[in-house]
Amino acid sequence: MHELTITKNLVSLLEDAVRPNDVGLVKTVHLEVGRLRYLVPEIMTTCFSQIEKSDKLKQAKLDLKVLPVKLRCSDCDKESCADENNFTCSFCLSQNVDIISGKEFILKSIEW
Amino acid sequence: MAFKVIKENVLKSNDNIASVIRESMKKSKTLMINIISSPGAGKTTLIEKIPPMLKDAGIRFAVLTGDCFTTNDATRIDKAGAEVVQINTGNSCHIDAQFIRSALSEINMDSLDLLIVENVGNLVCPAEFDIGEDCKIVILSLPEGDDKPKKYPLVFTESELVLLNKVDLLGHLPFDIDECIKNIQGVNSRVPIIKISSLKGDGIDEFIGWITKRINIKKEK
User: Fold this and answer.
1) Residue B167: which residues within 8 A CB-CB, separation 6 or more?
2) Which mean pLDDT values do the consecutive 10-residue runs of chain B (221 residues) have?
3) CATH topology of domain A2-111
4) What is the ipTM of this complex?
5) Does residue B27 sit at the A interface (CB-CB below 8 Å)?
């Protein structure tokens, strides 16, 4: 249940973000999460609703965008997506790849 | 409707603490390894096995062992002759950097070459949290099945060593070791794999050799 710790971290970042006077009651929190993070959005939403927050955040909904796993091949230098958990270059089938996206965990923006 | 762009890493506060820990390990030239596996894969048994060999190799070490509630693991490791600090994580299924920072107040790092962290038994959450370690090591034991790297890829992509444990059970289980290695390399083609039996002792020398090499690299930096 990493969602609870992660959501607590998120709320503390959000509290900093909403502190300025010009920020109103937040409607949506936009997040980008890499597929390899294995976050369950429903659990995260439950955690978010349970954690104590300031008034500006109480009505906020989470919008979670899952980012695909992207690889860069060290042999042919091309980039490809990995839909399954077999990280092989789609072009030359080399396994000599680096994961360049898919592990993100970013608080992108807030809307009010 | 108004909008504010933030673009901040959600785990920033954890990662900041991890950086402070990493900096202090750099100063004391202590290699910190973070051992991760499912419950029952053999983390504690491995850590119980290695104190005499580490001592023979002249390596000064301590162990931080994580568990939600009990002190069972610390008791076992203490009996095996290692300096150990228990970290009880309560409801948290992993160790984060804050737990390490608190536990380190009980240890004198300047006198250590190696700090072993035994994470909470779990293949998902511990992989996500930077605790300031030099490297993550994942243990996969044969009874868990050869498909685990496909199911829990992050811990295998984040680890710099895979220990395939309980190889003494090969032949007694429907476990295809070639398929398992293929699955590990499918998510991390560069990671070294050592076959071990924590209980019987197979492969432990090779593991100690790997650690010694990493300690020497750290000392030279």
Assistant:
1) B142, B177, B195, B196, B197, B202, B203
2) 92 95 96 98 96 96 93 93 92 90 92 96 93 98 97 96 98 96 96 97 97 96 80
3) hypothetical protein PF0899 fold (3.30.2320)
4) 0.87
5) no
